[in-house]
Amino acid sequence: MKQTKQIAKWRMMLMGGALCALPISLIWHLANLQLIPGDDKDFRFLQSAGDARTLRSQVIPAYRGVITDRNGELLAVSTPLTSIYVNPQQLNSEQGPALAKAMGISYSELKKRLKNYENKQFMYLERHLPPHKAEPILAHKFKGVYSEQEYRRYYPAGEVTAHIIGFTDIEDQGQEGVELAYNQWLAGVPGEKRLVKDLKGNVVKEVGMVRAPATGKPLQLSIDLRLQYLAYRELKAAVAEQKARAGSLVMLDVETGEILAMVNQPSYNPNDRTKLVPAQLRNRALTDVFEPGSTMKPLTMMAALETGRYPFNHTINTSPGYIQVGSKTLLDPRDYGVMDLTKIITKSSQVGITKLALEMDAETIRNMFARAGLGQSTGLGFPGESVGVLPSRTKWRPIEHANLSFGYGLNLNAVQLAQAYNMIAAGGEFKPVSLVMQSEAPYSQRVVSERVTSQITTMLKTVTQQGGTATRAQIPAFPVAGKSGTAHKTENGGYADDRYRGFFAGFAPADNPKIVAVVVIDEPSNGKYYGGESAAPVFAKAVGGALQVLRVPPVNREEYLAAVELQP
To answer: Nearest-CA neighbor of 307 among 449, 436, 411?
Structure first.
């Protein structure tokens, strides 16, 4: 009996020890899970695993910086919109017909879309909906249907500024134009916030902001929207009237080199790109290069005057109205006989400029072209800009030498041509062009003497006066200095007989220049293909209107007032 009692006591002690060990073991295990660091799957691992199943990060889109013209007029602005998405695995199939009806689509179309995402947890139903269209859909509170705020770019000036501004894609990233060139500047930095969601993806609460979104920086361009509209209207009308293939017009501020207007035809509406043709995207003023023809003759003349060998009244005998250079015969419209240097420019004499050029070294002419910015980037950083070609040879054949003097055998874009003429208008100072508003006076470099550019300006004024090749470039009360040009287009390794480009490059008022402009008309097909007929009238209307908008005082007030009264 005594032995039995001792065994029972032993058992009681064993059971008591076991019962005490269990809670101690449990406490140790809990501490190990929640408090004591370990090498693998410790409390930190378990916490992060738990958070991964409940905590979620949500991106907060950044507001893209606005783009304005030089006067603060909006050219690109972001508007808040609502995007609706669905978790296909949460959507109740019985709600499908009602959801399709709310969205304004057929149930079969919705089912087809959901079928492609049946194994996914995310699918956009609609993106970038205006709030008044999104709210009726969200009001149904369909299971698994959610919304988020995004931004979409809007372009108030539409097709008028399309080639400059460009556009963004659905993710609000720049794809063309300034939107692409300055994407990093404009885009800003998205923010982030933390949310607690249940297993069904519903938001339980917002934990807090991880990082606030940083708004993109604003960008103020140099263009003047008033002049942009004016230039666009005149170019569009001219291209339509002349049944031309395309056209470009560029205006520069003579003092600063800033681009005041840059337009092209054909254009497109960046707010509705459903019918966009890729060829419409090109900013032809920067991407398309061409042989500038007779617009180069003033630069060749400048090179001649700079040598000091040719006084202003120097004469050249152009009889009998043609000249043989190698196997090529270069012609004037008629035999002009003896011509002074001014008349060579006034009449755009091919024979006169060729004889003058062949008396000089070809490198002298090329050097002048290079100092005017030809064959070099404008520095705008615009996507797709073409630098063009200014040839350099160890030995020039006579025909290559002659061709260079009157604008063949090289190519450039419309902005480069405007920059070259801006150098003349600025008295020989070469100024970098800019598409962004300048807060300080730009760096300029004198590349030609003021005396020489003054003589060239005197010659260029005669081109638009009676007897010149571009009288239709005249602007009432504002004397114009400029040069027309016409160039055959290349075709199959040669020159086409019936395809031309017409040009006019000039500035006004001639004696105190404010605006430089270049007009390019590509393949006019109404029979008037010479630059003096196709491009010069566009210059007169666009620049004449621009001078009025900028309130530049007229030289002849009576003539100016009479012209204004005659306008419709």
So the answer is: 449
